[in-house]
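Consider the following assembly input.
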Amino acid sequence: MFLRIHLAIVVCFALAACVTTGGSPGAASNIAPGERPEITTDEAGLWMASEDVERQLVSSGRVITDPALNTYVKQIICRLSPEYCEDIRVYIVRTPHFNASMHPNGFMQVWTGLMLRAENEAQLAYVLGHELGHYLRRHGVQQWRTVRGTASAMTFFRMAAAAAGAGYVGDIGYLVAMGALFSYSREFEREADDVGFDMMASAGYEPREATRIWQLLLAEKESSDEPDQFIFFATHPSKEERIDTLETRAKTIPAALSGSDTGTETHRAAIQSYLSEWLRDDLRNRRFAPSEVMLNRMIAARSHVPEFHFYLGELYRLRGDDGDAERAISSYLTALEMTDPPSDVHRSLGLVHWRNGRHAEARTAFENYLRAVPQADDKAMIESYLDQL
Amino acid sequence: MNTRAWIIIPVLLMSACTQYTLVEPQPQKIGDFYTVAPQIHWSREKQGAIELWTVDGPALQAIRFFSGIEDGESMFPATGADSKLPSYRSGMTAIEVEEFVIDTLARLGGTDVQAANLRPFQFGRTPGFRFEFTFLTREGLEFEGMAAGAEARDRLYLILYTGARSHYFGKHKNDVERIFESIQTSA
């Protein structure tokens, strides 16, 4: 399925391996601000391959170009690493999974599933800092040189593809492959963790949020009957020990370096206009257990947001297990008690009532829907339902 | 060839060694429930329970006839990793079927999948529905689509037409409209 992009990358790697002369396995120095690799080096070949991937991502239709949202994420990058601010190109990719990735040439993907799940700017900053760590430490080229020393480009490709693409539906695998071509060693992951942690603390973010985002992601994973489908864990090997390490480190941050800024309100404001779209995207995964954990966590934090109750109701309506109809109705009714609930709540409420034989309640809900949205796109269909009720 | 991948890997579909047969402009039986009457020649490929017709190739435009999706089935055959494709539930309303189709397209890699204008439609003698939709492919290519369907015998009968917005969707849109109008269902 992903043959074309993979082949393109393999060819690029193979070319790079053949024509370049510089570079050797082992530790590399940090990349300097503004630095570009010499054209004759293997690192330049790696950058060329990454640029090809970047071009394909840009034309994919998945990149969110909203200036306000991009400015929000970019300012986090610049706050974390002012000296590299101009070197990093961030792309917000509409994909409902928790993930971010960094390419050696300075292009970073931030998936909307991560932005949705991060509770605040500090949590997002930790993940972005982790990815920046891979860039600053040149983990991509180091990984490439290590593997190239013992195997062919094709072997490297196969390893990356196996780590990245296996088991994911549709072009999620394609995006994963684009982002996770470099499935880093535990040593590199640990180093990136350290860099990310230091960056967020130095930038004045609350360092304990680094632990928190791992904990909430683990809670979702543990609820799932398909834990292998958690892309971030697949491409970022992680254990509970990582949480312990981060907790320990948080305690060691000197008070002078440790900020208390979580940026919670800033983050909420930045993603507010995307909440419905991203929650709907998440339900399309049909991974109900982790989505339920996520939505209940959101409701616990902000019970007054009608979208959270509505989409929890949508989850129950779509899942359709025993008792889910009542749970859906309860969630919809809660949403309707709040200010500015989505107008679709009425429609969904009508559907659940109708499916359960409560025709009078269904009729009322559909009428309320048409009252809330007089020019509804599906007005003719709703009117036909009212004729049947 | 994996039939579920028709949106996201059109290039591979084009190069696949598929066997096409000619569809004559005369009534054609789809499965055991309905017939349609095309007015132009199409090329036909059978993909399991799905019948695909195209003129310029499935990467550019195609009409797909689903001859009865049963309760618990997805639109396209599920393989291991695809087990979370949305499933059809008998008794779904048209709103839920639209959601089922749109969510499936999104799961298969369509971006910004949007449905519009859901309305009642007479699917032969069976009350059904119609709607239009749009999406972007992985490469960012804009596609349009239109759907008609109905539930009968506890199964979902569905016809989907998709094509690249640039030229190919419009090229045979009216031919597909006539196909929709020609639907005849058995008793």
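The interface with chain B takes residues 1, 3-4, 56, 59-62, 94, 167-172, 174, 226, 281, 283-287, 318, 320, 347, 351, 354-355, 377-378, 380-381, 384-385 of chain A (CB under 8 Å). Ask yourself how this observation constrains the way the partners meet.
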